[in-house]
Amino acid sequence: MHLTNRRWPYAAVVLRCCLLLTPLPLVAQTASSAAPALTQTQGLALANAKTCLGCHQVDSKRVGPSFRAVAQRHAEQQGSLEYLASAIQQGGRGRWGAVPMPAQPQVNQQDALQLAQWILTLR
After folding, report:
1. How far apart are alpha carbons 116 and 114 in whole angstroms?
2. Are 89 and 18 in contact (CB under 8 A)?
3. Where are the alpha helices (DSSP H) in the chain?
4. What is the residue extent of each domain of the chain?
């Protein structure tokens, strides 16, 4: 675009306004997608360190569903990474039966995202 075009200053203002009005969840989704991927061994070790294996196993149901079943249910859903990370931290009830998943406050945001990303690779 030529700098002497009279519309150029307006385009810059519109662009700045659009950036300021971008909803925070969209910004968070973009940033969270950059969480480093874990190998299968690292993912299992992190799940063990955060006590996930007390209720979940990779291939079979324990108290909660298997990680593979979670991955298969959420594999193709848009926003599944952020959804699973939130479910890990905040817990939930009624998604997989009568037994609720308690909140996991010991799991920080980055670890929750890494766990969710690892779980989604298990499908």
Report:
1. 5
2. no
3. 8-20, 24-32, 40-49, 67-74, 80-90, 109-120
4. 25-120
